[in-house]
Write a structure and sequence with these properties.
The protein is an alpha+beta fold. It folds into four domains: 40-146, Beta Barrel (Thrombin, subunit H), CATH 2.40.10.120; 161-257, Thrombin, subunit H, CATH 2.40.10.10; 265-360, Roll (Pdz3 Domain); 366-466, Pdz3 Domain. The chain has helices spanning 2-26, 31-37, 63-70, 75-79, 108-111, 246-257, 276-282, 300-304, 323-331, 359-365, 385-390, 410-413, 433-447; strands at residues 41-51, 86-97, 103-106, 116-121, 129-130, 132-137, 142-146, 169-174, 182-193, 203-206, 218-220, 226-233, 241-245, 265-266, 269-273, 290-295, 311-315, 318-319, 338-345, 348-355, 357-358, 378-382, 400-405, 421-425, 428-429, 449-456, 459-466. Strand 11 (218-220) and strand 12 (226-233) form a beta hairpin. The protein is globular and about 60 Å long. Mean pLDDT is 81; it is low at 1-22, 53-81 and 361-374.
């Protein structure tokens, strides 16, 4: 019996050895890819000056300045003329070089609000190069930097993210936790992921290890081409990372590099997905397309004859599966473009020629116009249900949507961003520009500061704007 078991064990061992050898031969080798692509990946460090954090429940941006004006634990310190404590805050991220003369791609959130940006190359012990922020696009979370180098820099080329198939090998290179030029490998797990981070979510998902510090680094195919920009991870699981597709990123980066404003098409409609119940009620064959909830008066869709209840199923020659896909399709077209929009109305297909407006222009002017909050350095508009939906904010939230923040303005100094929603000013609710303006003039000017309650993608905090700073 023992002899039989021994022979069986040897036989099994031999089988496992042969199977393992065969599997190992089928696995890819990433050595050459890492050697070739590694030099084109950089580490990005940023510095910014921030107020020193406050203890306990008062650890809220801008709260110290609030107590200076309204009384509280910091009031006496301010009356004695002591300056508000400041400290340097630093952060690390990744990026990659796209031109020999020093253009570098990273995430907007890596460099947003930075006073100083430094690019470090690989494991070199030499000092990094200072970087200039050429341009950013917060809606896609992309940024373009420029460094001046005395010698040509190694370059990574963009690949075709649309051509990638789920299950293909991919490699990520970056600076996780400050560990420079870290190489990880995995597969492309999924395409077209919507993680509710913005209106144009269409992420690539990968199980290649991505961690804090990888942001802005490249996701590469086996040819060493950039098919994604690593930008997010799942907070609830391991081995789930997300990258901006290269085909989306390359268009934005090219605009930034040419000094162009990133502009996007605009229909001027509120939309929702077509559920099974909606499809049944409308007599539709499939639960596909984007249902128009309303058209905004005077906007492109309204002018072209589209109306509430129409189901958009196609933009030019591209089928529309849902509301998110419609938003991306239209945003990918230039304002002023004459676009054929196909809808289902009363069970029949109808085609409309729509001359697209500009998304940014709509967001800036909006209904109710730009704010009287120019003293703050912002442009605002009343928050609409479609804005709330795009920002993943509860529909019952009321306030003013910030659509533009002027660089160097009091609002920028306070850390306000495009997409923030002002809920209140000096603890008073604000829903239109006139209410905010009145508070600025009646209270803000007298006290020299304005405390704003901000909703940023569902999270609420206070920020204080220094009105004495020009």
């Amino acid at each position: 019996m023992n002899g039989f078991l021994k022979k069986a064990a040897l036989a099994v061992t031999g089988f496992v050895f042969l199977a393992t050898s065969a599997s190992a031969a089928d696995l890819p080798n990433f050595v050459n890819l890492a050697k070739k692509a590694g030099p084109g990946v950089v580490n990005i460090s940023t510095e910014r000056e921030v107020s020193s954090p406050v203890m306990g429940m008062f650890d809220i941006p801008g709260m110290e300045r609030f107590f200076e004006q309204f009384g509280g634990p910091f009031g006496q310190q301010r009356r004695q003329g002591q300056p508000a404590p400041k400290r340097k805050s630093s952060a690390l991220g990744s990026g990659f070089i796209i031109s020999a003369d020093g253009y570098i791609v990273t995430n907007n959130h890596v460099v947003e609000g930075a006073d100083k940006v430094t690019v470090n190359f690989g494991d070199s012990k030499s000092e990094g190069l200072p970087a200039k922020i050429v341009g950013t696009d917060s809606e896609t979370d992309l940024a373009l930097l420029k460094v001046e180098s005395s010698k040509p820099l190694p370059v990574l080329a963009f690949g075709d993210s649309d051509a990638m198939e789920v299950g293909e090998w991919v490699v990520a290179i970056g600076n996780p936790f400050g560990l420079s030029n870290t190489v990880t490998a995995g597969i492309l797990s999924a395409k077209g992921r919507d993680i509710h981070s913005g209106p144009f979510d269409n992420f690539l998902q990968t199980d290649a290890s991505i961690n804090p510090g990888n942001s802005g680094g490249p996701l590469l195919n086996m040819a060493g081409e950039v098919i994604g920009i690593n930008t997010a991870i799942s907070a609830n699981g391991q081995g789930i990372g997300f990258a901006i597709p290269s085909n989306l990123a390359e268009k934005v980066i090219n605009d930034l590099r040419e000094g162009k404003k990133v502009s996007r098409g605009w229909l001027g409609v509120t939309i929702q997905n077509v559920s099974e119940d909606v499809a049944k009620a409308l007599g539709l064959k499939d639960a596909k397309g984007a249902l128009i909830g309303s058209t905004m008066p005077g906007e492109p869709a309204d002018k072209a004859g589209l109306r509430a209840g129409d189901v958009i199923i196609r933009v030019n020659k591209t089928d529309v599966a849902d509301a998110s896909e419609l938003t991306r399709s239209v945003a990918g077209l230039k304002p002023g473009t004459k676009t054929e929009v196909t809808v289902l109305r009363d069970g029949k297909e109808m085609k409309f020629d729509v001359t697209l407006g500009e998304r940014a222009a709509h967001m800036g002017a909006g209904q109710g116009g730009q704010s009287e909050g120019s003293d703050l350095g912002v442009s605002i508009k009343p928050l609409t249900p479609e804005d709330a939906r795009a920002l993943q904010i509860n529909a019952d939230v009321k306030g003013l949507l910030i659509v533009n923040v002027t660089n160097g303005s009091p609002a920028a100094e306070a850390g306000l961003r495009n997409g923030d929603v002002i809920l209140s000013a000096n603890l008073k609710p604000v829903t239109n520009a006139g209410e905010l303006s009145a508070i600025i003039q009646n209270e803000g000017r007298k006290r020299g500061a304005l405390m704003l309650q901000i909703n940023r993608r569902g999270e609420t905090f206070f920020a204080t704007v220094d009105l004495e700073k020009k």
